[in-house]
Amino acid sequence: MKFDRREFAGAVADVGVLVPIAVALIVSNGLSATAVLLPAGLLYLVAALTYGLPIPVQPLKAFGAIAIAKGLGSDEIAAGALLMGVVFVLLGRFHLLDFAARAFPRALIRGVQLTVGLLFLKIAWGLVLDPPKSFSEHALPSAWAVTLAAGGVLAAITLRRYPVSLVLVLSGVVVMVALGGGDAALGPSGLAFTDLDWATIGTAFTVLVLPQLPLSFANSCLATADAARVYFGNKARVVRPGRLATSFGSANLLAGAIGGMPVCHGAGGLTAHVAFGARTGGAPLVMGSSLLVLALGFGAGLAGLLTAFPLPILAALLATAGLLHIGLLRDLREPWAWALALAVGIVGFQVHLALALGGGLVVYWGARLVGAVAGTRLRTA
To answer: What is the pTM of this model?
Structure first.
């Protein structure tokens, strides 16, 4: 593991996804700040020691967005986290995901990565143009926010050889402490252990888990394993879909037990870590340790403090990761592969990823079947 300035810069590159969802769950949904950050921090440490690479940890994006929009309480969120944990631990331990991954061609995976890249750009745009209510007290006017975020993206892309993300995040921390430091308090926030009934479990499964399953299967498992192979080659042989499912599924069992934030891995987060310099398990070790310090040392005051973090910085990091993640499509060569990837990416972004994956599989394997039948007929003619 390395612990140089580029590794530190890569470690903080993915906070653009983590911070907005974490803050909203703490402020709007009433989750404990310690419970929100503790599973993420522990999973980062597990990723560092298990994979030895900058494997990311992110909130469940569809899950979190629905929970925030519907104002669901800690019991529904905890039930959803437990269900996600059970599903993916079982899929991972019985190697079902590794088997299923063989059915997905590279073009289809690139389509998933295009969906995620576009989603990152959409979230980044929303952060500066229509700030979440949790951040409204310290939000800048839209024109200023867009300008600063665009400047951040330009700096991040053109100066990636330098620790730009580290400078941006440290600058954001200074602003955050200056604006919200009066609310700081030492020690962890309280934990409330989950109290479930069948009605709560049913609501969590239908409202939160079902919309999240396709995204976690495709992005957290298949696309993350693929991106790791693209970036690290043979070093990423331990990063398998089933293993990823087991690691983040286990973290969700903990998140559900303590009423915390459900988490996953993510191909876009891997791109963010790598793009800004991370190359080893040092980056997730640094990030995980930092989250544990925040959760246990400052959790009692984080609800007010994190809402002061500058949104243009989060948007800049998120948009940069989205643009670079879309760049993974550049290794496609055949026109049919580009057509399939673009179709899956656009349908996944505009409609639903499950529909895009299903349609993509039908088109790809249908074409393979037709080609095989036609070839057999030609040989026997």
So the answer is: 0.90
